[in-house]
Amino acid sequence: MSWCWLDLRAAPADNAGAQARVFERDGTPAGWLAVWLRRAKPSRSARRIDGRVVDGRGAAAWLSLVRPPDGVRLPFDDVAVQQARRAVLAAPPHDAVTTLLSDASHFEGALTVARGDGVARLADDPFARVFPARVLRVEAGLFGAVPAPCGPTIERYGSAQPWPWDRYDAAPS
Amino acid sequence: MPTHPIAPLRAGARFPDFELSDHAGNRRRLSNLVAGDPVVLQFFRGWWCPKEQAFLRRLIDLQDDVEVAYSRMISVSVDAPEVNAALRAGLGARWTFLSDPDRAVQASLGLRETTDTLNDPYVPAVFTLFPDLTIHRAFDGYWYWGRPTLDELRHDMREIARAIRADWEAPTP
User: Fold this and answer.
1) Dihedral of CA B137/B142/B144/B146: which sign?
2) Which of A112, A166, A167, B130 is most buried as measured by Cβ atoms within 10 A of its Cβ?
3) Alpha-carbon torsion, ordered B13, B130, A171, A95, to 10 deg
4) Alpha carbon of A149: minimum distance to chain B alpha carbons (Å)
5) Euclidean distance between CA atoms B20 and B100, whole angstroms
C-alpha cells in the first residue's frame, strides 16, 4: 500500500516531505508540486501515487499531469482506463509514470515524468485521452526515474496500489 | 558427444539471473523483471525469421490473458534494442524484449544455434519459470513443432500460479 500523496498547490506547503516549483510550457509559474509520505491525507485535492517516482536527487523534468474535472472520476476498470494502461506499456517507456488514486476503485488521474527524447511524446500521453492533461516543467529535486514494468500486466497488485506498481508487497517465491 | 544446448536448462534447475538491455536501452535483471509472478521466457532467433514471426504472433494472442493474470512475458534475441523496439511495436507486444547483441549471455547460457553461422542467433527456446527462476518446463523450438502451444503455456501458468498463490482457492467466509 502506497501512502505517498501528491498535490499541485498555489503556494509551497509548510509540511511537505518534498516539493518543487512547476511552470507552464511558456515559463509562466504554475505553482508547487508537493509530496507527503504519511497515512493521513494532507489536503482535499491530494491524491496517492507510487512513491517510487519521488527522488530528491532527481533532475528537472517535464510532466504530464492528468486530472479529472472537479467532481468527476472513473472506475479504475473503465475500458478507457484499461486501454490507456495498454498504450503506456506498448509505447517506449518514460522516466516514470504513476496513476493517481484516492480510494481502491477509482482512477483519478496520472503523472508521467519525461526527460530528453521523451519530452516530445508527453503530448501523446495515453492518460490524456481519459481526462485533461497539463504539460508542466518541474524543477530538480522531486521526481526520479523508475524502471518500466515488465508487462503485459495492466491490473493492480491489490486494488489500493497505484498502477504500474508491479508486485504484491510480500510476493511468495 | 556434445551436450544438447537446452539440456542443462531442464525442469527443476534454476535459470541464471542474467542482465541485458531492454528494448528502450535500460539494463534489466531477469529477477527484477520476474518479481513475484509466473513467467514465459522466450528466446528467439531474430525479427527476420518467419518461424519467429509466426510464433510471436501466437504469443500476441496469449497477451490478453497474461495482462490480467498477474503473469509476465519476456523475449530475448541478439538483435539490438532499437530493432527489438521496432519489432515489438509492429507486433503490438506490451511485454519486455531484451537484447544480447554481443552474445555474452547467449554464450553463458549455451543457447547458440550452431547451425546458423550467418546470424549466430539464439536457439529458439521457451521456458516457463517460477518467480524464484526455477524452471517449470523447457521447450526446444529448434523444430517449430517443439514450441509450446498456447494451451501448454496456459497450463504451465496455471500450475505455477497454483503453487505460489497462497489464496489460489477463493477464500471462504
Assistant:
1) negative
2) A112
3) 100
4) 7
5) 6
- Amino acid letter, residue B89: A
Please tell me the distance from the alpha carbon of residue A27 to that of residue A21, in angstroms, as a whole number: 11
CA distance B58 to B39: 16
Buried/exposed A80-106: b ≥16 CB within 10 Å, e otherwise: ebbebbbebbbbebbbbbbbbbbeeeb
Give residue-wise pLDDT tens across range A54-106. Answer: 999 999 999 999 999 998 989 999 999 999 999 999 999 999 999 999 899 99
Cβ within 8 Å, pair A147-B89: no
CB contact under 8 A, B36 and A90: no
Nearest-neighbour CA in chain B from A73: distance (Å): 22
Q: Above 0.95 for ipTM, yes or no?
A: no
Residue ranges per structural domain of chain A: 4-138
Ordered domains of chain B (ranges, CATH):
20-162 (3.40.30.10)
Summarised one tens digit per residue, pLDDT across range A111-127 is: 999 999 999 999 999 99
